[in-house]
């Protein structure tokens, strides 16, 4: 009980027994599998930094609910300061791991449930908020990590859940029992599901009354009976299995497909069941929180790219090249505008009826659209500055080969005084930053497709007041 150290976090995962498949094989030792472990290490950093002076004040906060110190990733925001701290922490962690630390999604789910379960209870007289608060206490007291089970497989995108040819295309309730519900379906792109103690499931879209069996939210342990994790491919993933050429020496990201093969959920872990009109609130709240989280950590990732570009400029002898400096400036301003937009969405946040704070949705979604385009531009600029070896550097095994290693090191040396090994390491990091598909593609689709961001911006913007302003200037009276 209480805050966990990194070692305690890893041990707590060791005590779990999830059903996992990867690359065609069943994996029994998840924690020591090098591919999955590199992802677990990313999440472990959220525990590790809690003990570092540089991070402690940002990570450790106080929970009025349990009246104890908690990790910020277990605290739904209770003030504007909390909203701001989320962004600052995500930026610092993004630049610490250079990939996705994976723990923000669970907080985004907790924050959403903290708001919406209260609203559902007000309308329907249900007791979802009580269930949620008890679950939150459990998360906080044990310093647990949760992932976000939001994205359904969705089948034919032109049809709603109930209209699908196969009725399991969205996670649904297949049985209601006295002691709980049984759910079936699949959630995809499940960032860090095996780094998580808990899987929190929310609806992925607005639902109609006929979709009520699909309007379901709940939490289950990541090793619940019937739950199957299938770890997806990511470019560069065999590097971790090979034990070399990983680029990022410690951290990585993986996203399993999660199959719910008739999983039992006790009633006290159910947070929505049939109140279909609230599915849309859950989606908007979650995706907006998550888009705000992205702006922080992706700004941190650009910080790593800037550091990589500047170091290779030094190693290559181009530090004084004017166009390289300009390109680094262009990378920095992209990180800062992304960060600034997320900070603004926090400062413009407001208190919800439950007492939890919510960000400004339009600003959070604007930052995500910005991220989708500008991360790609920052990556392009980094590759331009670093050079072609971001693409095709020989393996460390070739550098160690007694027959060719010496020749390779001779020809890959650049500026005098810089060990060739350092130049090789930096190129490898640039490759990882640019080409880790499990991370780079989340810049575009993470937290919803770019069109979803646009739709949310239009729906949530006060367009009426903009029309009024324009008509006033033109001298038109309604
Ligand atoms: C690296 C990564 C990590 C992720 N992590 C998580 C996670 O931890 N948890 C989680 O729940 N999800 C996660 N996601 C999922 C992410 O939210 C989805 O990928 C995103 O919502 C898009 O859904 P999709 O992949 O099914 O694509 P689709 O929804 O099929 O979208 C593909 C394209 O079709 C368009 N489209 C889809 N439906 C329609 C329609 N009806 N009309 C018009 N156009 C349409 C979209 O706008 C888009 O352009 C992650 C995704 C990635 C790539």
Automatic annotation (TrEMBL):
SUPFAM superfamilies: Acyl-CoA dehydrogenase C-terminal domain-like, Acyl-CoA dehydrogenase NM domain-like. One of its GO terms (molecular function) is oxidoreductase activity, acting on the CH-CH group of donors. FAD binds at residue 191. Keywords: FAD, Flavoprotein, Oxidoreductase. Gene3D superfamilies: 4-hydroxybutyryl-coa dehydratase, domain 1, Butyryl-CoA Dehydrogenase, subunit A, domain 2, Butyryl-CoA Dehydrogenase, subunit A, domain 3. Pfam families: HpaB, HpaB_N. Residues 5-272 form the HpaB/PvcC/4-BUDH N-terminal domain. Residues 281-475 form the HpaB/PvcC/4-BUDH C-terminal domain. This is 4-hydroxybutyryl-CoA dehydratase. It comes from Desulfonema magnum. The lineage of its organism: Bacteria, Pseudomonadati, Thermodesulfobacteriota, Desulfobacteria, Desulfobacterales.
């Amino acid at each position: 009980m209480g805050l966990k150290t990194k070692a305690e976090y890893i041990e707590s995962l060791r005590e779990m027994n999830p059903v996992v498949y990867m690359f065609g094989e069943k994996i029994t030792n998840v924690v020591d599998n090098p591919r999955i472990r590199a992802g677990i290490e990313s999440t472990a950093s959220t525990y590790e930094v809690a003990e570092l002076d540089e991070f402690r004040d940002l990570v450790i906060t106080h929970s009025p609910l349990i009246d104890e110190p908690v990790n910020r990733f277990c605290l739904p925001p209770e003030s504007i300061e909390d909203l701001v701290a989320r962004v600052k922490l995500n930026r610092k962690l993004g630049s610490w791991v250079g990939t996705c630390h994976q723990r923000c999604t669970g907080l985004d789910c907790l924050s959403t449930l903290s708001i919406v379960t209260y609203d559902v209870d007000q309308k329907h007289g249900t007791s979802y908020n009580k269930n949620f608060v008890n679950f939150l206490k459990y998360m906080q007291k044990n310093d647990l990590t949760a992932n976000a089970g939001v994205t359904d497989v969705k089948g034919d995108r032109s049809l709603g859940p109930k209209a699908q040819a196969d009725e399991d295309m969205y996670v649904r309730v297949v049985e209601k029992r006295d002691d709980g519900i049984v759910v079936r379906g699949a959630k995809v792109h499940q960032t860090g599901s095996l780094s998580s103690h808990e899987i929190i499931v929310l609806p992925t879209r607005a639902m109609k009354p006929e979709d009520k069996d699909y309007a379901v939210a709940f939490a289950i342990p990541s090793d619940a009976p019937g739950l199957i994790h299938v770890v997806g491919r990511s470019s560069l993933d065999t590097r971790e299995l090979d034990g070399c050429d990983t680029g990022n020496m410690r951290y990585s990201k993986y996203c399993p497909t999660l199959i719910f093969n008739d999983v039992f959920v006790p009633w006290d872990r159910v947070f929505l069941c049939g109140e279909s009109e609230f599915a849309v609130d859950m989606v908007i709240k979650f995706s907006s929180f998550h888009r705000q989280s992205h702006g922080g950590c992706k700004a941190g990732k650009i910080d790593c790219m800037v550091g990589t570009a500047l170091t290779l400029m030094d190693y290559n002898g181009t530090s004084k090249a004017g166009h390289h400096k300009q390109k680094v400036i262009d990378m920095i301003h992209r990180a800062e505008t992304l960060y600034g937009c997320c900070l603004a969405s926090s400062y413009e946040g407001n208190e919800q009826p439950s007492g939890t704070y919510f960000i400004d949705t339009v600003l959070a979604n604007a930052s995500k659209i910005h991220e989708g385009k500008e991360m790609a531009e920052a990556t392009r600029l980094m590759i331009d500055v670093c050079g072609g070896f971001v693409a095709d550097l020989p393996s460390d095994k070739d550098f160690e080969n007694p027959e060719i290693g010496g020749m390779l090191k001779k020809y890959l040396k650049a500026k005098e005084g810089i060990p060739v090994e350092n130049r090789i390491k930096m190129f490898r990091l640039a490759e990882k930053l640019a080409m880790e598909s499990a991370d780079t593609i989340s810049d575009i689709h993470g937290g919803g497709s770019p069109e979803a961001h646009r739709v949310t911006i239009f729906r949530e913007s006060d367009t009426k007041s903009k029309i009024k302003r324009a008509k006033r200037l033109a001298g038109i009276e309604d």
